[in-house]
Specification:
This protein is of the alpha+beta class. The chain folds into 2 domains: 2-54, no CATH class; 71-147, Arc Repressor Mutant, subunit A (Orthogonal Bundle). The chain has helices at residues 36-54, 71-83, 92-99, 104-112, 138-147, and strands spanning 2-4, 7-13, 18-22, 90-91, 125-126. It has a 3-stranded antiparallel beta sheet with strand order 1-2-3, covered by helices on one side.
């Protein structure tokens, strides 16, 4: 588990790499691995997440463990990583077009099942007419896009 400005994030890693992140909205209980390589991958992921959330990291380079992710789903998630860098967004329709998915709603379903949010940046996938949805909640999606400079920061007027 990792305490962050957005809440507690669950981190699961294996000897291959980061396998899952659990956002605060979903609880944090994940399987833990105590062996050397898994613990090192979890520590690397935690450090990079902390840097990202402080605004000090734009790209993750922690190895990923895609175990349990269907080939088709993985292809869409990898396409997302290629076409939506820090500070940019892509619509569900455009991601679908580039990844070979006909229906943007299907892309939304795949994004909602992303096992590695933040690192695999499903928060950067937006609807053609607004933010769209987000498994961590729209408030978190907006905060992440503000952090990346995609959206202007809201003023807290204390009202």
């Amino acid at each position: 588990m990792l305490e962050t400005p957005i809440g507690t994030i669950g981190v699961e890693a294996t000897e291959v790499g980061l396998r899952r992140l659990r956002l605060p909205a979903h609880g944090t209980t994940l399987e833990t691995h105590e062996d050397g390589a898994a613990a090192a991958n979890a520590a690397t992921a935690a450090g990079q997440l902390e840097e990202y959330l402080r605004g000090d990291r734009e790209r993750f380079d922690v190895p990923l463990d895609w175990g349990g992710v269907e080939v088709f789903h993985r292809r869409v998630l990898e396409t997302l990583c290629e076409i939506a860098p820090f500070g940019a967004t892509v619509t569900y329709a455009e991601l679908g077009r580039r990844a070979g998915v006909d229906d943007p709603r299907d892309v939304g379903v795949l994004m909602s099942r992303n096992p590695i949010p933040l690192v695999v940046p499903c928060h950067r996938v937006v609807a053609s007419d607004g933010l769209g949805g987000y498994g961590g909640g729209l408030e978190l999606k907006q905060r992440l896009l503000e952090l990346e400079g995609v959206l202007p920061q809201r003023l807290d007027l204390g009202l």
